Amino acid sequence: MAAVDDAQDTADDERQGNVTTRDLLVALTKDRVVLLAVIFLVVLVISAAFANVLAPYDPLIPNIFAGRLPPLSWADGPGGVQQFHLLGTDALGRDMLSRLMYGARASVSVGLIAVAVSAVIGTTLGLIAGYYGGRADTVIMRTADGFMAVPSLLIALFVLFIVGGGLFNMVLVFALIRWVVYTRLARGITLSYRQSSFVEAARTVGATDRRIMFRHILPNMMSPLLVLATLEVALLILAEAGLSFLGFGLQPPEPSWGLMIARGREYLREAWWMITFPGLAIFLTTLSLNLLANWLRTITDPVQRWRWLI
Fold it and tell me: Buried b vs exposed e over 132-146: b needs ≥16 C-beta within 10 Å?
């Protein structure tokens, strides 16, 4: 039994055409644009994870005597200590760089956690629908069609209006409305593999349905799922910023990129940096994630990856 499984796993790897970590690193160095995008994302994640250590000042403590200072400004802080504000301050004198770093923590947390939860739920339901078919497929896919019929942002606005904003509520709402994209993808791939020779071989040696789905079929859809998840992180970061801008996301005084833009638009003429830097952070993050997703799609495609691995 073990020998058959090992042989089958080897055949699956050969058919899938997996690449090694070294191949990925070599291919990454050949695309300077994607390399810059990955470096930016790494810096962003580190800044978000260790914002309490790396942020120069407390993002919540105001300084009314240093309000709306332009970038590269000095100001007197608490106790008369001189403070340098690299990206300036907002209307209440709070350091923009510190608030951007803490705002990244909120955006990255919402994107990664919501994508992880929705991916697990959606992929599992897609595997069940595609593998078993019949009534299970009908119920799951008609439910997914119902969710797809209503714009996701509209559902999020309605639910958050009832339950209130906040980080936990946004993660929960995004996870519950975005599982459908993973379900549709997983179901389609499962249908194409359900009658494949390696699945029939697994049935022949007595593998259970659960083992076939999660040990043989699931690994063969990891590449498209990874690409989809990367795009979904960018989408949810934009959604979080939009909801916070409208007042349905994080609430003041918690820093959020969308909330910073909403507060900064009132001072656009005299304090351009209050809206420019949060908007630039959102733009660069979503652009980097889309570039990474496109690169992952290419490098995991056996037909196209040769140009990066030569």
Answer: eeeeebeebbeebee
